[in-house]
Every structure is written in C-alpha cells, then in structure tokens.
Amino acid sequence: MTNASTPLQVAKFGGTSVADFTALSQCASIIVSDPTTRVVVVSAAAGVTNRLVELTQADLPNNERQRLLKEIAAIEYAIVDQLSGSEIRAAVDALLTQMANLVDRISHCTGDQLAPLADSLLSIGERCSSLLLTQVLKQLGVDAVNFDVTRVMRTDGHHGKATPDCASLTLNALEQLLPLTENQVVVTQGFIGADDEGNVTTLGRGGSDFSAALLAEALGASALAIWTDVNGIYSCDPRVVVDAKPIAELSFSEAAEMATFGSKILHPATILPAQRSQTPVFVGCTRAPEQGGTWIRNHCESRPKFRALSLRRGQTLLTAHSLNMLHSQGFLAELFAILARHRISVDLITTSEVSVALTLDQTGSDSSGRSLITEALLEELAPLCRVEVERDLSLLAVIGNHIAHTSGIGIRVLDAIGDSNIRMFCQGASAHNLCFLVASSEVEAITNRLHARLLN
Ligand code: ASP
Ligand code: MG
C-alpha cells in the first residue's frame, strides 16, 4: 500500500488516445495537469492490434503480410517524425524489426509454437505506444520512464487470454515499479504480461483497462482514470439512442453490469479489481478533459431504479437438449465442465425439464478473434446432448437498482418490447439487471422505445 499522504493515480489511455502525435500530446497534458498521476498504462495505437491479429495467421498471403507491416510502420513513424532525437527512432526501428522477424517465424510455424509467437507479436503495439508517450513526456520536460510491464504482470501460460496472478503482480509491482514513481512518471503497457518462464502473454482483446485496474490495485492507487474517446458513460450508447444522457456517478455494481452487458467503454474485467481494492474509477475523454466524465465508486448519491440500457450484439444462443436431463443429476455439471475446458464463459442461462439454453459472446474470447463454437467443442458435446445454435441475436440489459425487488418493472419493460419476439428472458440473479435476447434486426427499435419510457 502506498502512503496515504502521497496519493498515486494510475491513468490509462486507450487506442484512439495514442493514435497519433496530437493525441499523445493531449495525453501528456492530462498527465502533467495532475501531479498525482505517476503510472500511465497505454494501449496500442488505434488499428495496430487489429492488424497484428491478422498477422498472427500463419497462412496469410505474402502481399497481405507486407501491406499490414507497412501500415503499422506508417502509424508508428508518423509519430516518430514529430519527435526529436535519433534514439527514439532507433528504438522504434528495433521494435518494428522484431515485429517483422516474428511475422516471418509465424509464417513458417505450426501447431503449439504459434500461440507464444502470436502473443509476442501482439505485444509490439503496446510496446511502441509506451515508448512514444515516454518520449513525448520527456520532450515536455517530464522525467518519464518506459517500463516493461512483463517484469511485473505475472500470468499463467494461457496464450491469448492469460489469467493474471495478482499476488505475484502485487509483490513485483511494489518492489520494482513503485519505487520509480517517487521521482518519475512510469509509462507502461496494458494488455500484455509474461508467464513464469518469461514468455509474453496477452490478456484478451481490450485487456488494457484490466491491466490498469490490476496495477492500480497492486500499487494501492488512490484512483484509476480511464481516458478514452468518449466523455464518460451514458445511459445508452448514443449511436443507438440519440438522446442518451451522460452519467456523472455510478456504483461499482452498476458499472460491472454495464461493462458485462455490452457498454464497450470498459473491458468487463476492469471493475472487479477496482471494486476489490475500492479504487474509484474515472472515465473521461482525452480530447476534452474539461467536459468531465463518469466516476465509478462504491457509494454514490443517487440509486435510481433505472440507470442505463446496455446492448450487446453478436450473441450466440446455444440450446442443449437431452432426455437424460429429466430427473437426473449432473447433466449441467458435465455440460459446464466441457464448456470450461474450451474456455467458454457462459452469460445467461435458462433451463427447462429437458433442455438448457445459454448465451455466449466474443467478449470473453481470446486475442486471436477465433469463434468460440468450434468443431472440437461440438464433437465433445455430441454424446451428451443435441445442440442447436442460433446466431444474429442481441442482448439488451436494463441496469438499475432494486430491480429484483420492485413491483411493476416487468410490465413496463414488456410493454416497451411490444410484440417483438423475446428469445430469452433473465431476471432475478442480480438486483441490478434484467435482460433479454431479441433478434439483432429489432434491437435498436426496442432499445429506443425502452429508453424513452424508462430513462427520459
Ligand atoms: N490493444 C489491445 C486491443 O486492441 C488491448 C487494448 O486496447 O485494450 O485489444
Ligand atoms: Mg478499450
């Protein structure tokens, strides 16, 4: 734990916030404006990780490979060109050479060798960003240091979606990172870590928020600021509902539901470490910090019945039918054991006498972007049950307080859904949400009706 008299904030900047030199300069001015910001976590520049993911395919045609490498180099060098000194160019040159070598090795490799190489390749985006932001800060006279997060972010060896080891992270961070913050601003990478043997791992797409929350927890930070391209969290995605309203303050429980149910602003895993360590989280816009943002904390003044709507597209509904389920024990345990072996986390579940329906989505998927439902999974499920898969569904969650204990909520929600078909309906497990699954083609209209009736 840090000394309460010397508060330390962790600030995380996302891909659009580090996309170019202008954006990096805005990050720097936010860092400079608050001297308690001592640890800065960065994502890869916008578009870089997507390209690196494409480059992890061993069978990519060579011209595609060359095009992607060039596009990444163009993004990074456009920033280098605005910086002074030959050292930074040499450092970026070295990283991009490493990138090209990894891509070359991937193109010749098969099987088990691929995953560790892919994670090393994916780490290049975050490594470039931290190097570049450090230099921008230095040029402004800030004593900044680029810190390799793999020295402290210990994870298991599950490439593409590694699980951090919080105890090791805390020990390492207090020993190796915290002392640096006394005199320097430490700039480090989100998304990446390393296993016990030092092999680079990644935490899954969008994992930088999670990294920042884990580091804030490990360092006993006084606050975590997530700087992104929107000025906080809204009552619904403003691209879907034009009169969605900004939310000044949210509880951890509400924020966790929102992140889980599709508000893309925070990676769903982010809230847990923050809540565990009671670290308040601020979400604001790098381009317009003066607009304020959303504070997420344990206790907040307002606890409205309806706070927000979250929408998650691209849902898959998997229904498992089995007559063996009738009056038997252990069917669900077996089903979930298989899903767990395939690293699939289940979201919603409903059951009947002989079937169980569950939703899956890509949020919990690994860094490679592969589909969750693989042939291998279906093969393993086949002896147990008959499986039906439905796609193109969307999940809509009503987020608020005391939902499970307030009468009349169901009728208001159902009334707004009107005569659209509800494919699944879940309520009861949490006081903070009620959610249902509908066809993606209908979800925007339903969301607008619900927002108008519950949140205006
Ligand atoms: N760069 C990684 C991604 O695009 C991690 C992150 O941005 O949070 O998924
Ligand atoms: Mg993100």
UniProtKB/TrEMBL annotation:
Its EC number is 2.7.2.4. Substrate binds at residues 49, 126. Transmembrane segments: none annotated. Residues 320-394 form the ACT domain. PROSITE patterns: ACT, ASPARTOKINASE. One of its GO terms (cellular component) is cytosol. Keywords: Amino-acid biosynthesis, ATP-binding, Kinase, Nucleotide-binding, Transferase. GO terms for molecular function: aspartate kinase activity; ATP binding. It catalyses: L-aspartate + ATP = 4-phospho-L-aspartate + ADP. Gene3D superfamilies: 3.30.70.260, Acetylglutamate kinase-like (3.40.1160.10), Aspartokinase, catalytic domain (1.20.120.1320). Pfam families: AA_kinase (PF00696), ACT_9 (PF22468). GO terms for biological process: homoserine biosynthetic process; lysine biosynthetic process via diaminopimelate; threonine biosynthetic process. Coiled coil: none annotated. Pathway: Amino-acid biosynthesis; L-lysine biosynthesis via DAP pathway; (S)-tetrahydrodipicolinate from L-aspartate: step 1/4; Amino-acid biosynthesis; L-methionine biosynthesis via de novo pathway; L-homoserine from L-aspartate: step 1/3; Amino-acid biosynthesis; L-threonine biosynthesis; L-threonine from L-aspartate: step 1/5. ATP binds at residues 12-15, 228-229, 234, 239. It comes from the Bacteria. The keyword Ion transport does not apply. NCBIfam families: asp_kinases, PRK09084.1. Belongs to the aspartokinase family. This is Aspartokinase.
